[in-house]
Design a protein that fits this description.
Layout (H helix, E strand, L loop, with lengths): L6 E2 L5 E2 L32 H9 L2 E3 L17 H9 L7 H11 L4 E4 L6 H16 L9 E4 L3 H15 L6 E4 L5 H9 L4 E4 L1 H7 L18 E4 L2 H6 L3 H9 L6 E6 L4 H10 L5 E5 L12 E7 L2 H12 L12 E5 L3 H13 L4 E4 L5 H13 L4 E4 L1 H4 L7 E6 L5 H8 L9 E7 L7 H10 L6 H8 L5
Helix pairs in contact: 3-4, 4-5, 7-9
Length: about 475
C-alpha cells in the first residue's frame, strides 16, 4: 500500500494517516508453547477421514504434513477449556478451526484465508488463551496476546468470547477501542490483561505512539502473540501504518496469526512482511487469490434501472412485513450512504417493521444498543452502511439485502453476514447500469459459487468498457 492514501477512523470518517515511527521488524521463529497440550503430528500422514474432511470443506494447507483435528476431543487445549466447550454443546470444529488449531498451538505462524462466518474468532482465540495460560505473564500492563480488528463492534464481540472462555482458565481480556473514554480503558490495562483486543487507532493512543506525550498505558515488550482479524478490512480502512508501528513494539520472536476473508495484494504484502518465513497458509474454499463467496448463501441479483430500484426494493421487503411469511426473521439491509440508510430506515419504521439503523451518525452507545437488540431479536431489521456493520458477527441472520452494490470486496463481506456457522442464507442485490464496471467480477463470483447469473448481468459483461 505504497504512498499516502485516504484513511478512515472506526466510524468511517476521513482521518489523518499516521506516519510510522519505523517499519515493523519481520518476526523470527516463535518458541513452542505446547507444554501441556497435544502438538501437531507433523510426521503422521493424513488418514482417509481427514482427507475426506479437507476435500468436503475445500481446505488447502501448504504444509502437507499438517494434521487437522476433526473432533473436539482432539483439540489441543487445556482440559478445563475443552470441558467448557463440551458443556456448552460446542459443535465439531469448523474447517478453519480444524485446520488452524493444531498449527497455532504448536507455535507456527498461520495465514488463514476463510469466508466470514467460518468460525475464525474461536479459530484464533482458543489457541491464544492456551498460550496465555502457558505463559501467565499478566503483570500490570503486560499482555501475552494482542488481537487487532477494524471496528469497535468487532472488538467488543471478540472480547465477549474471550471473557466467556477465558474464565475457564483464569485469563483476562480487555477491549481498547475508539468512541469511548480513554481513561477507563487505561485503568483496565494498568490492572493487567492477558489478552488485549483493540482497534489500531486506539492501540496507538494506549502506546502513546501518536506522540501526545501522555506516556504509554501498557507495554507490548512481553506480548508474544499477535492476531490480525479481518486484515483486509483494516488495510482498506487505511490502518496499515498503524499496524506496522504497533508491531514494532512487539518482540521479533512473536507468533502471528493473520485472518482475512480476501487475499488482495495489499494483504499479501503485509503477510510477507510480518509473518515468519515458515508460516503455514490455510485456505478454506477454492478461491486462492480470487474473491469467493460462501457457497451456502443463495445469491440473487436483480438488474434494475435507477427509476425502478425503489419499487424492486419494496417488493423484496413484502415477505418480511408483519403477518407475512418471513415476518420476524432477521434481515440486514446495506446502503452505500448514511443518507439512504436513514431514509430507508424511516420508511421501514413507518410501515411497521421492527427496524433500526447503524451508521456513522449514531453514537457508540446507540450502535451498541442496536446490535444488542438485533442479537436478542427485539429488532429484526437493521439498515446499515459497510463501515458501521463490519464485525456484526451474529448467527441466525436469514437475509441480506444490498440496496446498493458496493464493489466486489465489500459485496463478499456484506453477504457473509448470513450463512454463518454452517447455516444457509439468502442475499438479494440490486444492480444498476451505474454498477456495470463490476459486472464481470460479480458474474465470476456467482459462477464460482454455483449461482445463477442473470442474462442482464451477462449482457453488461459483453459490453465494451469505456468507463
Amino acid at each position: 500500500m505504497g504512498g499516502k492514501r485516504l484513511a478512515f477512523d472506526e466510524d468511517g470518517s476521513p482521518a489523518q494517516v499516521s506516519e510510522p515511527i519505523k517499519l515493523a521488524k519481520k518476526a523470527k521463529v516463535a518458541k513452542d508453547v505446547t507444554a501441556d497440550t497435544k502438538a501437531i503430528k507433523s510426521d503422521v500422514p493424513l488418514d482417509t477421514a481427514v482427507e475426506a474432511f479437507m476435500k468436503e470443506h475445500e481446505i488447502a494447507i501448504d504444509d502437507p504434513k499438517a494434521a487437522p483435528c476433526l473432533h473436539l476431543s482432539e483439540a489441543p487445549f487445556p482440559a478445563s477449556l475443552v470441558s467448557l466447550l463440551m458443556k456448552q454443546n460446542f459443535p465439531a470444529p469448523s474447517a478453519v478451526q480444524a485446520a488452524g488449531w493444531p498449527l497455532a498451538v504448536s507455535g507456527r505462524d498461520v495465514l488463514a484465508i476463510a469466508k466470514t462466518g467460518s468460525g475464525k474468532t474461536l479459530g484464533y482465540l482458543l489457541p491464544a488463551l492456551t498460550r496465555c495460560q502457558a505463559e501467565r505473564t499478566a503483570a500490570k500492563g503486560a499482555p501475552t496476546c494482542l488481537v487487532m480488528a477494524p471496528t469497535r463492534e468487532l472488538v467488543l464481540q471478540i472480547q465477549a468470547e474471550a471473557t466467556r472462555f477465558g474464565a475457564a482458565i483464569g485469563c483476562k481480556a480487555v477491549a481498547v477501542y475508539g468512541g469511548a473514554p480513554k481513561w477507563g480503558q487505561v485503568q483496565q490495562l494498568q490492572r493487567g490483561a492477558d489478552i488485549v483486543i483493540a482497534t489500531p487507532g486506539r492501540m496507538m493512543d494506549m502506546l502513546d505512539l501518536h506522540g501526545a506525550g501522555a506516556g504509554p498505558s501498557t507495554s507490548l515488550k512481553a506480548c508474544n502473540m499477535l492476531v490480525l482479524d479481518e486484515a483486509d478490512r483494516m488495510l482498506d480502512m487505511g490502518f496499515e501504518w498503524d499496524i506496522r508501528t504497533i508491531v514494532w513494539e512487539m518482540p521479533t520472536t512473536r507468533q502471528t496469526l493473520l485472518f482475512s476473508a480476501t487475499w488482495p495484494k495489499a494483504v499479501q504484502k503485509v503477510a510477507a512482511d510480518l509473518l515468519q518465513a515458515n508460516r503455514v497458509k490455510v485456505t478454506v474454499g477454492t478461491g486462492g487469490n480470487k474473491l469467493t463467496a460462501n457457497k451456502s448463501i443463495e445469491q440473487r441479483v436483480q438488474v434494475v434501472t435507477e427509476s425502478a430500484k425503489w419499487d424492486a426494493f419494496l417488493k423484496l421487503l413484502e415477505t418480511f412485513k408483519p403477518g407475512a411469511a418471513d415476518a420476524g426473521k432477521r434481515v440486514i439491509v446495506f446502503s452505500n450512504t448514511k443518507r439512504d440508510v436513514n431514509w430507508i430506515g424511516q420508511h421501514c419504521w413507518d410501515n411497521g417493521f421492527s427496524v433500526d439503523t447503524v451508521s456513522g451518525d449514531r453514537t457508540q452507545s446507540q450502535r451498541e444498543s442496536v446490535i444488542k437488540q438485533f442479537r436478542a431479536g427485539s429488532v429484526t431489521m437493521v439498515i446499515a452502511t459497510d463501515v458501521a456493520a463490519r464485525g456484526l458477527d451474529i448467527n441466525g441472520i436469514e437475509r441480506v439485502i444490498n440496496y446498493d452494490f458496493p464493489g466486489p470486496d465489500d459485496y463478499i463481506h456484506r453477504i457473509g453476514r448470513t450463512g454463518r456457522a454452517g447455516a444457509s442464507g439468502v442475499a438479494d442485490t440490486l444492480f444498476t447500469a451505474g454498477d456495470r464496471k463490476h459486472a464481470k467480477e460479480l458474474a465470476r463470483i456467482l459462477e464460482d459459487a454455483g449461482q445463477q447469473v442473470p442474462a442482464e448481468l451477462k449482457a453488461f459483461t459483453a459490453q465494451r468498457q469505456w468507463w
